[in-house]
Design brief:
globular, 99 residues, 1 helix, 6-stranded antiparallel β-sheet
Length: 99
């Protein structure tokens, strides 16, 4: 089911833990290691974007997500309470599992 960015932000900010898998080359299945964060908090910037960085140490590499991205709530797996996919023009950018 497609959802909006505000719902994704709300779900992330209410979770105890997030596990984000980044797909660097779209659906070819080549992904970066999972980024795990306890008590995650995300917010929109003044331009309406939420920034998801690949790793805590690396501020320059990541995805800027806004309302133009396709955000889908999927059936949770791996023991998660919720799972989301973020796509750009149909290409999978990241999966977010919330616990």
């Amino acid at each position: 089911m497609e959802i909006n960015l505000d719902k994704l932000i709300n779900e992330i900010n209410q979770s105890q833990k997030s596990v984000i898998s980044f797909y660097l080359f779209g659906e070819m299945g080549i992904g970066a290691p999972r980024f795990i964060q306890d008590r995650p908090k995300v917010n929109k910037d003044e331009d309406g974007y939420v920034y998801f960085k690949f790793a805590r140490e690396d501020e320059e590499n990541g995805y800027h997500i806004n309302e133009m991205h396709e955000i889908y709530q999927e059936e949770p797996d791996e023991g998660a309470k919720a799972k989301f996919e973020v796509r750009e023009q149909g290409i999978l950018l990241m999966e977010i599992r919330l616990y």
